[in-house]
């Protein structure tokens, strides 16, 4: 009858509508799964990039600290060598002074045998001159030591300032890395929120 045909068509239309709805749901699920896979791949790529960045910063920190440590060690070795050289030079000057004093004493002794009065006067004069020479040499050696000490202290201060600047640069790089990680987290959260909003909109529309 007509009513039966109408009911049959309605059932067919209902089944067709249900199948169409199932097909749309399946397509949306596939799109959603593809989007989730894409986001997962992007997250893995970002994790690899972040890991590479951390390794690069760690290597840079190690290289900078190693170079500064080696520079300080070399500077200490130079200072120690200069100190030893200065001590040797002072001892060498003293030895020269002693040798010269011995030669003067021998000459004075020989002169004294020839003429006592002349030897006494010459001995007194040369003794005063020796004292002046020794004092002048000692003052000069002290001035050299003071100058070397000032130069080494200035160099150490310069290296210390360089080390502090490098530490500040390392802290700045760590801050940039933390800011980069925070930005990546925020970007990921925005993507997840956008995905949730899209899913809610789709289900509400349905």
Automatic annotation (TrEMBL):
Keywords: Cell cycle, Coiled coil, Cytoplasm, Cytoskeleton, Repeat. GO terms for biological process: eye photoreceptor cell development. Residues 29-56, 149-183 form a coiled coil. Its main location: cytoplasm. It is found in: Cytoplasm, Cytoskeleton, Microtubule organizing center, Centrosome, Centriole. Belongs to the POC5 family. Essential for the assembly of the distal half of centrioles, required for centriole elongation. Acts as a negative regulator of centriole elongation. This is Centrosomal protein POC5. It comes from Haliaeetus albicilla (White-tailed sea-eagle). The lineage of its organism: Eukaryota, Metazoa, Chordata, Craniata, Vertebrata.
């Amino acid at each position: 009858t007509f009513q039966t045909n109408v009911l049959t068509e309605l059932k067919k239309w209902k089944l067709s509508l249900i199948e169409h709805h199932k097909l749309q749901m399946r397509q949306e699920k596939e799109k959603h799964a593809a989007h989730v896979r894409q986001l997962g791949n992007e997250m893995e790529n970002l994790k690899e990039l972040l890991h590479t960045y951390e390794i690069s910063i760690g290597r840079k920190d190690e290289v900078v600290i190693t170079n500064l440590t080696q520079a300080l060690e070399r500077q200490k070795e130079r200072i120690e060598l200069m100190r030893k050289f200065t001590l040797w030079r002072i001892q060498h000057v003293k030895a020269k002074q002693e040798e010269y004093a011995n030669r003067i004493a021998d000459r004075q002794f020989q002169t004294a045998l020839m003429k006592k009065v002349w030897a006494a006067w010459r001995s007194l004069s040369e003794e005063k001159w020796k004292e002046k020479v020794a004092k002048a040499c000692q003052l000069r050696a002290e001035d050299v030591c003071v100058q070397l000490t000032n130069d080494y202290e200035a160099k150490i201060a310069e290296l210390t300032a360089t080390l502090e600047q490098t530490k500040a640069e390392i802290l700045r790089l760590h801050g940039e890395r933390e800011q980069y990680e925070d930005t990546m987290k925020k970007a990921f959260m925005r993507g997840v929120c956008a995905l949730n909003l899209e899913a809610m909109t789709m289900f509400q529309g349905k």
